[in-house]
Amino acid sequence: MNIVIAAVGGQGAVLASKILGTLAQNLGKDVKVSEVHGMSQRGGSVVAYVKFGEKVYSPVVEKGTADIVLAFELLEGARYVDYLKENGKLVVNTQKIDPMPVITGDVKYPSDLNEKFEKLNIGYVPVDALSIAKNAGTLKAVNVALIGVLAKNSNIKKEEWIKAIKDTVPEKFLELNLKAFEMGYDLN
User: Fold this and answer.
1) Helix (H, G, I), strand (E, B) or coil at 183
2) Is there a smaller number of Cβ atoms within 10 Å at the N or the C end of the chain?
3) How many C-beta neighbours within 10 Å does residue 118 have?
4) What ranges in the chain are assigned the alpha helix state H?
């Protein structure tokens, strides 16, 4: 299983990759989680790779080989959609966060990303994860809300996902994150 996590700094890509890595370990799989690349500061583009299976030799996911791209923002989904293999799945938060070139007025945020994704030969799962996170009680749970959607679209038992979250998320944030996971899971 090859997963690309594409996010904007501050959205929780590191925690999401740790949850996925813990899930794979709990399932007895060989797992490699890459370093997060990009500007991990708020606003910068961030990407992490999670690979797991019987034997994994490299932590890097090459273009055209990802089973899933988990995008925490629309433009990040567009940046990494070419990592998907044919019939791969793009799970993307419909939230728009303007990158610096848009903020400065040098370029406009693309208005037709949803239409472009729908025309591709992929599974496209748009999610308003920001609303789910707000309803769960914290804007910081967008990442775990998306993991809930991912879990529902996987063949891995829900209990395994919940165990991975419990094993990874600090106790003081666990209840809110479990609520966001459940809301994302129940969305589909």
Assistant:
1) helix
2) C
3) 10
4) 13-26, 74-80, 100-103, 113-119, 129-136, 142-152, 158-168, 171-185
pLDDT (tens, 9 = 90+) of the chain, 188 residues, equals: 999 999 988 788 989 999 999 999 999 999 999 976 665 555 678 899 999 999 999 999 999 999 999 999 999 999 999 999 998 999 999 999 888 888 899 999 998 998 999 999 899 999 999 999 999 999 999 999 999 999 999 999 999 999 999 999 999 999 999 999 999 999 86
DSSP letter for 140, please: G
What's the token pair of residue 79? 């940046």
Question: Please, what sign has the CA dihedral across residues 140, 62, 25, 38?
Answer: negative
Q: Long-range pairs for 98-103 at CB < 8 Å and ≥24 separation? A: 99/8, 99/43, 99/45, 99/75, 100/43
- Taking residue 93's Cβ as centre, other Cβ atoms within 10 Å add up to 29
Q: Is the dihedral of CA 164, 165, 170, 172 positive or negative?
A: negative
Give the type of residue at 74: L
| CA distances, 23 to each of 75, 114, 158 (Å) | 27, 30, 11
pTM: 0.92
Are 169 and 148 in contact by the 8 Å Cβ rule? The answer is: no
